[in-house]
Design brief:
Layout lengths: L6 H13 L3 H9 L3 H9 L3 H10 L2 H10 L2 H8 L4 H10 L2 H9 L3 H9 L3 H11 L15 E3 L5 H11 L8 E5 L5 E6 H5 L18 E2 L4 H11 L3 E5 L5 E6 H19 L14 H28 L1 H6 L7 H24 L8 H30 L4 H31 L9 H23 L6
Parallel strand pairs: 1-2, 4-5
Antiparallel strand pairs: 2-3, 5-6
Length: 456
């Protein structure tokens, strides 16, 4: 039995044979290589060498490889293919993969390709291209098994045998009535374990979870996660079945959405390409706007320090605790915002739960704040040797700041969601900036209230 080598080893072999121009051996190795590993190999090659690899693939492997490539690598191959070659590849792709490819191509090239396509394909492509960006309609495929409720099990099995090789999946058959209205679905397992003369309408499930063509892709991903389906039917406003979305189409959406959330949490504009492919300038231009905004926002801290300059001059010891207090507040707020953003992304909480969430985080803030306050008091009094009333100010302030930071960190993402903004923008850097400014105001006002001899 042939033992498959690890993907890293296989990719090194492919690169070595390509470099040495040992084409016969390279062709044989490609025949034994999983298409996903070929994708990884092509991603790291310049256009000319990537095209050599691609042309040596068997037709069915070439189609699968092309479908798995991201748009940047597809364009890399496309630049070396003539229009006829490219058209042949498009014709063999699943419909959703073809649409993804066409969306990234110049309009004139798309027009040229459509002019040589049959009218049904042209109509479908034009319909797809009308769907809103990031909607369910842009993810679906029309290659599914559709059956009539009056068909028998025997007829259905014959039909699946006839058309199944052209479908994305045959494990679920969708039952439609007049005008393609979705009536229900039946699994292949139920079909093959039923008597041949039983009708589909007696086997089908009528309670169907669907998505609409205009539904946001993030909501679609949530339905896959919630219900654990391998495919979901896509319907229009009249419940007409227009396509299906399979779980492999949605997996990259889940990864993409999570990546974008992490990038926003880090205080950067979401990147349009992989980190390894981006230049220093590409990365910098996505970060400069946020850094600029945060720098300007941070200027409020200087304004607050100037406003309370007399307090600082009266009790110099207050100044030494500012970094600890603002740092603790920023960390507490970041913890709350990150957890709330994640909970909202998984639909564990909704904007309507805001009061429950904020109250919970205030409770967490009280517990954490009291623990930090005790440690801060002991540190400032025993180790920093400040007066006991100054140590008390520091302890009381850190309690207040942590509670405030937890409340703000939990509330702002919910407010953002309520007003249609991405909750992830209310993330660590922004929360820290807000809490820093408010924390200083709290600190100096507590000092004024407790310490003798401080006036404004």
């Amino acid at each position: 039995m042939y033992k498959y080598k690890s993907s890293e080893h296989r990719i090194r072999q492919l690169n070595y044979l390509l470099e040495k121009k040992r084409i016969d051996e390279l062709t044989e190795l490609l025949r034994r290589t999983n298409p996903i590993d070929v994708v990884e190999c092509i991603e790291d090659l310049p256009a000319e060498e990537a095209l050599v690899i691609f042309r040596l693939l068997k037709k069915e492997d070439a189609i699968e490889v092309f479908a798995e490539l991201d748009q940047e690598d597809k364009q890399k191959l496309q630049s070396g293919l003539n229009e006829d070659e490219f058209k042949q590849i498009l014709d063999e792709l699943n419909f959703d993969d073809m649409i993804d490819t066409l969306e990234e191509m110049p309009a004139q090239m798309v027009q040229n390709i459509l002019e040589t396509s049959d009218s049904q394909t042209r109509d479908l492509v034009n319909e797809y291209l009308q769907f809103p960006e990031y909607s369910a309609g842009t993810l679906m495929t029309t290659e599914f098994v559709e059956v009539s409720p009056d068909m028998t099990v025997g007829q259905t099995l014959e039909y699946i045998e006839k058309v199944g090789h052209d479908k994305v999946t045959v494990y679920t058959c969708y039952v439609t009535g007049p005008k393609k209205v979705l009536l229900g679905y039946v699994s292949l397992r139920v079909i093959v374990t039923s008597e041949p003369d039983v009708k589909i309408k007696d086997l089908m499930y009528e309670d169907v979870i669907t998505v609409e063509t205009t539904e946001d892709q993030e909501d679609v991903a949530h339905k896959f996660q919630k219900y654990g389906f391998t495919a979901l039917p896509v319907v229009d406003h009249a419940n007409k079945l227009v396509g299906i979305i399979t779980v492999d189409d949605i997996m990259w959406i889940i990864e993409q959405e999570a990546t974008e959330d992490f990038q926003r949490i880090a205080g950067t504009t979401p990147e349009e390409s992989d980190y390894s492919r981006m230049t220093a300038w590409d990365l910098a231009k996505n970060r400069i706007p946020w850094l600029m905004f945060l720098m300007i926002s941070g200027a409020f801290t200087s304004t607050i320090l100037k406003r309370y300059e007399d307090v600082i001059q009266t009790v110099i010891a207050l100044n030494m605790f500012i970094p600890m207090l603002t740092g603790s507040g920023g960390n507490a707020g970041s913890q709350a915002s990150t957890l709330v953003i994640r909970a909202m992304a998984t639909h564990d909480i909704e904007p309507r739960d805001w009061a429950k969430v904020v109250l919970k985080e205030i409770s967490v803030g009280l517990i954490c704040g009291l623990a930090l306050a005790v440690v801060a008091f002991l540190k400032s009094y025993l180790f920093d040797k400040v007066a006991i009333n100054v140590a008390f100010v520091v302890a009381l302030t850190i309690l207040a700041i942590v509670v405030m930071a937890k409340a703000i960190g939990s509330l702002l993402p919910i407010v953002a969601e309520k007003f249609g903004a991405d909750p992830a923008i209310m993330a660590s850097p922004l929360i820290t900036t807000i809490v820093d400014s408010l924390g200083l105001i709290v600190y100096f006002n507590i000092a004024q209230a407790i310490l003798p001899g401080i006036t404004m």
